[in-house]
From TrEMBL:
One of its GO terms (biological process) is guanosine tetraphosphate biosynthetic process. Pathway: Purine metabolism; ppGpp biosynthesis; ppGpp from GTP: step 1/2. Residues 72-195 form the RelA/SpoT domain. The lineage of its organism: Bacteria, Bacillati, Bacillota, Bacilli, Lactobacillales. It holds the Pfam family RelA_SpoT. SMART domains: RelA_SpoT. SUPFAM superfamilies: Nucleotidyltransferase. This is RelA SpoT domain protein.
Length: 227
């Protein structure tokens, strides 16, 4: 299993993106924003390591890797501002702290559906991990057909100056669900496609999401039978 650890936004990049955003004046304390990004990045590293260790343990004890691979990403300033805008909030340190939980995100791609809940349980059972938010789009898929388990956990990050709890968003889904989400995302953001075609593809994708879930469930049964 591989964890792609993406490069952390550096101070210069954050400053540049803030300048481009025209909302610069609303961020009174630039250093505080950088500090939040840095803390969240450390939080993602902590959670990433925990997930790697869990996968190692399963592989050692049960000869099965629940995790296929993982991706770690930091939110860009542009999408941070976009999200605050949608919530009707200004870009202030207070609003970032109180309303944005996905500055650091880890996407966990599992081999089977059961692995999603196995990973979730083993992670939130750890005494230093606290579950803050949970959306199960597998039990309750989005109208588009989107399936995934989204959780936000809080983790203490130890620094030279003390300890702080930070949120990390973890999206957990199977290879099939991930493949579907990538294609649907492409369709959603393609602007030069004939609307009639978009409608047709959207309908088909809704259907395929259910079919993929069905196939992944049946493949899981075969896997269980062979264990
Ligand atoms: P945002 O993060 O601002 O979108 O709001 P939120 O955190 O309230 O939303 P949510 O928990 O539903 O997760 C949003 C993320 O899930 C998006 O950024 C996408 O990555 C993914 N997502 C949600 N719905 C869909 C969908 O219908 N299709 C695809 N491809 N991805 C989706
Ligand atoms: Mg989100």
């Amino acid at each position: 299993m591989i964890l792609e650890r993406n490069n952390f936004l550096n101070v210069k990049q954050i400053e540049q993106q803030l300048k481009q955003s025209q909302q610069k004046s609303r961020i009174d304390d630039f250093k505080a924003l950088v500090k939040i990004f840095q803390l969240c990045h450390s939080g993602a590293n902590e959670i990433g390591t925990k997930l790697e260790n869990l996968d190692d343990e399963y592989s050692m004890n049960y000869d099965h890797n629940p995790i296929h691979h993982m991706e770690e990403r930091m939110k860009s300033i542009g999408s941070l501002i976009g999200k605050l805008d949608r919530k009707g909030l200004d870009l202030t340190i207070e609003n970032v702290r109180n309303h944005i939980y996905d500055i650091a995100g880890i996407r966990v791609i599992t081999n089977y559906i059961d692995d999603i809940y196995r990973i979730e349980e083993a992670l939130i059972d750890q005494s230093d991990v606290t579950l803050i938010r949970r959306k199960d789009y597998i039990k309750n898929p989005k109208p588009s057909g989107y399936r995934s388990l989204h959780i936000v956990v809080s983790i203490p990050v130890f620094q030279s100056t003390g300890v702080e709890d930070v949120p990390v968003e973890v999206q957990i889904r199977t290879i099939g669900m991930d493949m579907w989400a990538s294609l649907e995302h492409k369709l959603r953001y393609k602007t030069n496609v004939d609307p009639k075609k978009v409608k047709e593809h959207t309908g088909n994708l809704q259907k395929y999401a259910t079919e993929l879930y069905d196939i992944e469930s049946r493949m899981q049964e075969i896997f269980k039978d062979l264990q």
